[in-house]
Design brief:
This protein has 14 helices and 14 strands. The strands form two sheets. Strands 1, 2, 3, 4, 5, 6, 7, 8, 9, 12, 13 and 14 form a twelve-stranded mixed sheet that branches. Strands 10-11 form a two-stranded antiparallel sheet. The protein is α+β, with helices and mostly antiparallel strands and about 425 residues long. It folds into two domains: about 190 residues, no CATH class; about 210 residues, no CATH class.
């Protein structure tokens, strides 16, 4: 390449990068403050999206509580507010008669249908041992373990006869068993819960945690017994429906909507006063929340990045002023305006990318620490990392353009005279 062509193109990219880094190191404080603004903006959005991505992946992996062909009928949506102004608070409870009638209407679909009502924070006693008050008491029927993908490790499941006669029998989770009956045969033992005795007829296989919550500290009793002990007032029954195949799921769900409207006595013009949700519904509900959080983080990040962009413009204007004579010398040797423009733009992008890199490192690290505290696996949000780098480059180019343009427009004669 000829010498004239080299002057037209300006310095090689490696030399421009070296000069940019030298300029950053020469003014450590102002460079650090500018990078800090960029880093804060990138940290905000990368940290938030790392947490969301980790939780989203965890939800998709762990949402096997209903099974791939199952859905739940409930008074409330899968995710809703419990505070004042809750639009679902005035809905009628789904009582046991309605739930049983719906089960009868759906009998010809071949679906597995279980009824369920539960209470949290129960303490289980056996002889001189007791659990923490963190057990879940579930009143249900013989189809519960199939619909919720449990297996019986010892003994048997709750039977239809147990439900029909309201027997005081129970099936316990593995955590509950280890706490109160750690040794010996648990079958036939009588545990006590809220002053009531229940004979253990089965123990469930360990299932692990779901969103950090153990699925094995539970006691399952016949739903009829539950309602006898705790009453039917202010009790809404959940109905779990498991279609025979994935292909039949939509049809079964449509039939369930119709059955529930019949048992609830709704007219054609009345809206549904119940909810039906599946795994996909839960994921979609989480996605809506994630989108709102992501949008909020992006707005905060955008404001911080714009403020940091103004800082980049200021630092580059100062740099142009300090290097006026250097620019004059380069122009007198034949460097064209576009070469000067390119040099200063790259310097602005380097500053922005350095701040962005710091923000990404701390955002991914901090986001994964927060996700770990929520029992979610670590992730690396590749897409958002690339977006972060791209946005930082855009900030560097946009806010570095005016100083670079100003440097490129300098008159070489006046620049050489500058002191």
């Amino acid at each position: 390449m000829s010498e004239s062509r080299k002057r037209q193109l300006g310095l090689p990219l490696t030399e421009i990068l070296r000069m940019a880094w030298t300029s950053v190191c020469a003014h450590k404080l102002r460079s650090a403050l500018t990078m800090l603004g960029i880093a804060i903006g990138v940290f905000t959005v990368i940290g938030a999206m790392t947490i969301i991505t980790a939780l989203q992946r965890s939800i998709e992996e762990q949402l096997n509580v209903l099974g791939s062909t199952s859905f739940q009928v409930s008074k409330y949506p899968a995710i809703h507010s419990h505070g004042p102004g809750n639009p679902y608070a005035n809905r009628r409870d789904i009582n046991i008669a309605q739930a049983q009638r719906a089960k009868e209407l759906l009998a010809d679909t071949g679906a597995t249908i279980s009824l369920q009502v539960s209470a949290w924070g129960k303490q289980v006693f056996f002889e001189d041992k007791k659990t923490n008050p963190n057990n879940r008491l579930i009143g249900t029927d013989e189809a519960f373990i199939t619909g919720r993908s449990y297996n019986v490790a010892l003994g048997r499941n709750v039977t239809r006869e147990d439900v029909e006669f309201g027997r005081a029998v129970c099936v316990i989770g593995s955590d509950t068993r280890e706490r109160v009956i750690p040794v010996g045969d648990p079958l036939g033992a009588v545990i006590r819960l809220d002053g009531q005795g229940y004979r253990v007829v089965g123990v469930l296989e360990r299932k692990g945690e779901l969103f950090g919550q153990s699925q094995d500290n539970l006691v399952v009793i016949p739903i009829t017994r539950f309602l006898q002990v705790y009453g039917r007032e202010r009790r809404s029954i959940g109905v779990n429906v498991q279609a025979r195949t994935q292909a039949e799921m939509n049809e079964t769900m449509d039939r369930t909507y119709g059955a529930m409207r019949v048992v609830r006595g709704l007219q054609p013009e009345d809206p549904n006063d119940f909810e039906i949700f599946s795994n996909d519904t839960l994921v979609q509900a989480f996605d809506k929340i994630a989108n709102v959080v992501g949008a909020g983080a992006f707005v905060i990040s955008f404001i911080a990045l714009v403020a940091a962009g103004v800082g980049i413009m200021n630092i580059m204007l100062v740099s142009v002023t300090e290097r006026t004579k250097e620019i004059g010398i380069r122009k007198s040797l034949g460097a064209q305006r576009r070469a000067i423009l390119r040099q200063f733009l790259i310097e602005a992008v380097v500053i922005a990318q350095c701040g962005g890199l710091i923000g990404i490192v701390f955002g991914v690290g901090g986001g994964n620490l927060a996700a770990k505290a929520m029992e979610a696996d670590a992730v690396f949000p590749v897409m958002w990392t690339l977006i972060g780098f791209g946005f930082c480059s855009a900030i560097g180019i946009i806010f570095g353009f005016y100083p670079a343009w100003k440097a490129a427009r300098l008159d070489p004669i006046e620049a050489l005279r500058f002191e």
